[in-house]
Amino acid sequence: MNAISIGGMFRTGLTLVIVILLPLLYIIKVKLEDSVESQTAFISEAGDLVPRHRQNHGQPHQDPLAKDNHCHPMAEKIIFLKTHKTASSTVQNVLLRWGQKNKKTFALPKSGKSIFSYWKSFKVSDVHGYCESCPKPDIIAHHLRYSPDVEKLFAMDEPVYHLSIIRNPTSMFESVFNYMKGVAPQFKTAGTLEKFLDDPHKYIKHSKQMTSFFSRNHLTYEFGFDPMEEEPKKIAENLKLISQKWNLIMITEHMAESLAVLKHDLCLSIEDIACFITNARPKKTELSKKTQEKLLEWNQADARLYDHFNRTLWRRISHIGEEKIAHDVEKMHTLIDQLTEKCVDGYLPNSQLHPDFRTYQPPGLIVKGIQLTEEGFKDPLCYQMAMSELPWTRELMKAQGIPTNKLDKY
């Protein structure tokens, strides 16, 4: 076969390849354009704080605040055990905002107040409008003491995400003591934390029902167990039961990482988990080493609870991926810094704040809330992030047709 014949065959083959490939390339081009249009349409409905869609070297811009649309939440229902003096109001704010945005229903107190009777075990009869055949709520997020009755609020065949938050018992107990001293007789009688710790059994005799559980291991109490338990084996059994039930127990000292894990578990966005710190005491006491040792000895159950779930949190972070969590934490801090610069004017006592931003203030104590800038008042996200529990509860009650005339007043 000569060179001319071979050349002719090559040109004929090349022509056939072009004829076949051109239609295929056109189809692929159309599919890609459809995909881009689909992504653009989705991003434009995301409702986040950054521009919806920009061209970047011909590729659709992915919204850095949007949630992962390939994520599957661990559950659609949430039980949040709101513990005392752990920054739980900050986590509650995240859940209330997210719930309202997604038209979730909340289990709210039948009393018409912003709290359940947390000084005794929870009962389903404490919930407004509860009945076995009534529609089930999506979230419960107000102060309560956990009991198995909480589970009865949700259908047995649907998964429920169990969430709470705990804090280092040394700093937490100091905070509880000084925060509640005006209303807890056992603390008021002692006068100082050091005097109380010298002989705590002497002072807890003065306790009253609503505040007695603050005297010792109050986190253990709020999880439904005996706060006076001292037997190590029994404390270990209680920890095992909590571990089996609760999906995530956040750590106050690692709030940002905890929120990033929550984002992962429930498929939230960075905007969902962004938060301002509210209900903060302006002045805190430095504890001596001796006082810290006494606190840990007196609150052994809470100390073991904290140590156990602090380790558990970091195992979860390792499982999800430390780089992924760190990336989400960085994005969250960036957004919070932007919103703080734009919206937060300062922190003021209740008397100087708009009613929506006033926090509960025990007798004899000044607790500061958020003062928004003029721009912050106009920004819906900033306004909701700054709102305290009582006005939030009022909004939810109105949305669910519940009378608000018995709601607490500051």
From TrEMBL:
Keyword set, alphabetical order: Glycoprotein, Golgi apparatus, Membrane, Signal-anchor, Transferase, Transmembrane, Transmembrane helix
Intracellular or extracellular location(s): Golgi apparatus membrane
InterPro entries registered for this protein in UniProt: Gal-3-0_sulfotransfrase, P-loop_NTPase
Chief location of this protein within or outside the cell: Golgi
Pfam families reported for this sequence: Gal-3-0_sulfotr
Organism superkingdom: Eukaryota
Residues annotated as transmembrane: 12-28
Membrane topology: Single-pass type II membrane protein
PANTHER family listed in its UniProt record: GALACTOSE-3-O-SULFOTRANSFERASE, PUTATIVE-RELATED
Family statement drawn from the similarity comment of this UniProt entry: Belongs to the galactose-3-O-sulfotransferase family.
Protein name as annotated: Oidioi.mRNA.OKI2018_I69.chr2.g6407.t1.cds
Protein source organism: Oikopleura dioica (Tunicate)
